[in-house]
Automatic annotation (TrEMBL):
This is Acetylornithine transaminase. Its EC number is 2.6.1.11. Coiled coil: none annotated. Belongs to the class-III pyridoxal-phosphate-dependent aminotransferase family. CDD domains: OAT_like. It holds the Pfam family Aminotran_3.
């Protein structure tokens, strides 16, 4: 049987990884500034993570949600503390799309509405509900199209203020758009959403799958603005440092009911152990502070190198937009300098390294970028 061929891939086979580094099957070493798409939060194969996962695997790795799994409670308690949402409750699932599906269900159960407001260039995942609220017709199959979604312009305060919210259950937005090209939601825009949702009893969902979990330097990117909370946060990617786990953080205004949400794999022993290990490492190693410090250093240094059209982002979620397609630049960084980076659209390099990346490591990227930009100029 062949694989269903949906991914354009690089001819590189990573066989080992440590911290921010990967080694391929030919023994070549690469610096990973992409984190496998924002997933590697605490560094590849972190010793504490490996130890906790191995220990858990030897003990018990799965039983269904029909029994007590105290690891889930430990995870929820630690997540509440580190995210500064101690009074929220947690529903565990397996992927970002699934977290968003469950967030939409909650919102719809809550006020009975069936419409959703999303924003231009949004990406919320590929399952039925999540892809319907994703602003990319090329990945939306006819079966996913419905009349329930309105896309308003991202960061447009007036558009959200003036929108008719009849039958709307949720407004969903990424705190920093990832696939959309590292577009930071402005404070005024998020406050306008908050106000509109308050006025109309609509749920404010902050998709924090990519920009959350400390990536921006705060646990959730809206926490850069004071006194501004979403009703529901969705998380995945960095939550398990590569083990599939996702979460929906739910404000106290929602009442749980048996059977309302559910999943086979969500919150299993091994996934919960991964989630706990990640939170422990983030706290012990102060990785949010590191994301802020290294992110600011990167932004300053990229500004000095220049040659770009726009530099956007926060913490370790950075987009460098050029006025030319970046495919060649990205290939040079990868094949000549052995540096993994990401991309958004055609013209934007996307940096999503581990939150533990060091100054010495990002200096290697800055040196390479500086050289390649000088050659291009
Ligand atoms: C903001 C955002 N939401 C949702 C998703 C979907 O997550 P998953 O691929 O885990 O379903 C992604 C994935 O890239 C994302 O960036």
């Amino acid at each position: 049987m062949n694989l269903f061929n949906v991914y354009p891939i690089y001819d590189i086979e990573p066989v080992r990884a440590q911290g921010s580094w990967l080694w391929d099957s030919k023994g070549e070493k690469y610096l990973d500034l992409y984190g496998g798409h924002a997933v590697i939060s605490v560094g590849h194969c972190h010793p504490h993570y490996v130890e906790k996962m191995t220990e858990q695997l030897r003990r018990i790795n799965f039983y269904s949600n029909s029994v007590r799994i105290p690891l889930q409670e430990e995870l929820a308690q630690k997540l509440g503390e580190l995210s500064d949402c101690p009074d929220y409750t947690l529903f565990l699932c397996n992927s970002g799309a699934e977290a968003n599906e469950n967030a939409l269900k909650l919102a719809s159960f809550y006020n009975g509405g069936k419409k959703v407001v999303a924003f231009t260039k949004a990406f919320h995942g590929r399952t039925a509900g999540a892809v319907a609220i994703t602003d990319n017709p090329s990945i939306v199959a006819p079966v996913n199209y419905n009349a329930h979604v309105t896309f308003l312009p991202f960061n447009d305060v007036e558009a959200i203020r003036n929108h008719d919210m009849t039958d709307v259950c949720a407004v969903i937005v990424e705190g920093i758009q990832g696939v959309g090209g590292i577009q930071v939601a402005s404070e005024a825009f998020l406050r306008a959403i908050r106000e509109k949702c308050n006025e109309t009893n609509v749920t404010f969902i902050l998709d924090s799958v990519q920009c959350g979990y400390g990536r921006s330097g705060k646990f959730f990117s809206n926490q850069h603005y004071s006194n501004l909370q979403a009703d529901v946060y969705t998380t995945a990617k960095g939550m398990g440092n590569g083990f599939p786990i996702a979460g929906v953080l739910i404000s106290p205004k929602f009442q749980a009911k048996y059977g309302m949400l559910g999943t086979t794999f969500g919150g299993n022993h091994l996934a919960s152990a991964a989630g706990i290990a990640v939170l422990d490492i983030m706290k012990d190693e102060q990785l949010m502070a590191n994301a802020t410090e290294i992110g600011e250093y990167l932004m300053k240094s990229i500004t000095e190198i220049g040659g770009y059209k726009e530099l956007r982002g926060r913490g370790l979620m950075i987009g460098i937009e050029y006025d030319f397609p970046v495919e060649e630049l990205r290939n040079k960084l990868l094949f000549d300098h052995k540096l993994f980076t990401g991309v958004a659209g055609k013209n934007t390099i996307r940096l999503l390294p581990s939150l533990a990346v060091t100054k010495a490591e990002v200096d290697l990227f800055l040196e390479a970028l500086s050289k390649e930009i000088r050659v291009t100029a």
